Amino acid sequence: MVKQRRIRAHSCCAAVAPLCCRRGPSKTLTEPAIFARETSCDCRAPHEKLTIAQARRGTPVDRPVRVYADGIFDLFHSGHARALMQAKNLFPNTYLIVGVCSDELTHKYKGFTVMTEHERYEALRHCRYVDEVLRDAPWTLTPEFLEKHKIDFVAHDDIPYSSAGSEDVYKHIKEAGMFVPTQRTEGISTSDIITRIVRDYDVYARRNLQRGYTAKELNVSYINEKKYRLQNQVDRMKEKVRTVEEKSKHFVYRVEEKSHDLIQKWEEKSREFIGNFLELFGPDGTWKQVFQERSGRMLSYALSPRGSPSNSPPRELSPLRSPSPPSPPARWHNARPSPPTSPKGASASISSMSEGDEDEK
Question: Where are the residues of the annotated region Disordered (predicted)?
């Protein structure tokens, strides 16, 4: 029964509540946040003071818990978005109102901003956690302001914020039990981003000169403009040299790889050639065997020449002639007699020949 009553009460209040208190998730993701009215809140639902424990239990059921978070939000970054995400998720049903201070107040109490107030308003409108943006927010929150916008709680980091002659501008909010702390994101802030730009001013000035901005737009002197343009040319040359070096390294690597492959192939072919050579001309090689076989055949031919045919007819001897002496060796058969060295020697050789003929007779 209690659950049914809560559902009916919720449905009735939803029909009465204005659009600012009934912003659904589909609208959050498809449309920017609305701007708050300067007169008063449009919420018609009964507004009773809540405690943090009641809000965390999900009560009241007839309206969301209205949480207010304010700031400068210059150069809107992830630290801002995370703080708003925490504020949005403080309670089960939260309606987040974000107050953005104007340029006049910010320049007076904090310092100059990079973005204008209108740019900062638009940056907050397109954050997914924001339901409503309050322009020209006050620097110090008064009870009249909280009552006017029906604010239940104020979300901010717990570090005391000293400004406008006060040690902590949220001190009276904390004492009233309406303050809910959020955690800061370390390593990112607007001051950190500006410090990076100031520290590397020359780099960003050269960057924008390269992108087409004039020296007048950058408030750069003539001498500095020429210096930056010269540095840009030097950087381009360095980049070209670096590119050529990378290509050269790649080429040398490819040549080394190819030479390594060629050396490996040459070693393989050399081993193959040496193996074939040793197989052919080595101590037990094929060529030695062939040479030994041929030399053996030649030696056998020299030691045992061929004999005459066995079927040749025998030669008949003449009765008047005696058998002829054995023929001289073949090598002396066709040899010619050496000529006589002197006439005496010639006569002696003739007489010896005649004597020989007489003996044969």
Answer: 301-361
Q: Which two tokens stand for residue 152?
A: 């239940």
Cis? peptide before 60, omega within 30° of 0 = yes
The amino acid sitting at 346 is A
User: Mean pLDDT, to the nearest integer, of 74-86?
Assistant: 97
Strand order, beta sheet including 153-157? 34-35, 132-135, 94-100, 65-71, 153-157, 179-182
Spatial separation of the C-alpha atoms in residues 64 and 85, rounded to whole Å: 16
Q: Average pLDDT, stretch 273-278?
A: 79
Alpha helical stretches, state H, the chain: 2-16, 25-30, 52-56, 78-88, 103-109, 117-125, 143-148, 171-175, 190-199, 201-210, 215-218, 222-281, 286-303, 330-333, 343-360
Decide which of 3.40.50.720, 1.10.10.10, 3.40.50.10420, 3.40.50.620 is the CATH code for 34-187.
Answer: 3.40.50.620
Give 125-167 pLDDT, tens digit per residue.
999 999 999 999 999 999 999 999 999 999 999 998 887 678 8
Residue 194: CB atoms within 10 A of its CB come to 16
Number of neighbours of residue 82 by Cβ within 10 angstroms: 16
List Cβ neighbours of 183 (8 Å cut-off, separation of 6 or more).
Answer: 83, 86, 157
- Looking at the chain, the domain(s) classified CATH 3.40.50.620 span 34-187
Residue pLDDT, tens place only, 249-273: 888 888 878 888 888 888 888 888 8
Q: Is the pTM of this model over 0.70?
A: no
Tell whether the model's pLDDT for residue 357 goes beyond 50.
no
Q: How many CB atoms lie within 10 A of CB 269?
A: 10
d(CA 89, CA 183): 13
130 neighbors 23 (Cβ within 8 angstroms):
no
Helix, strand or coil for residue 277? helix
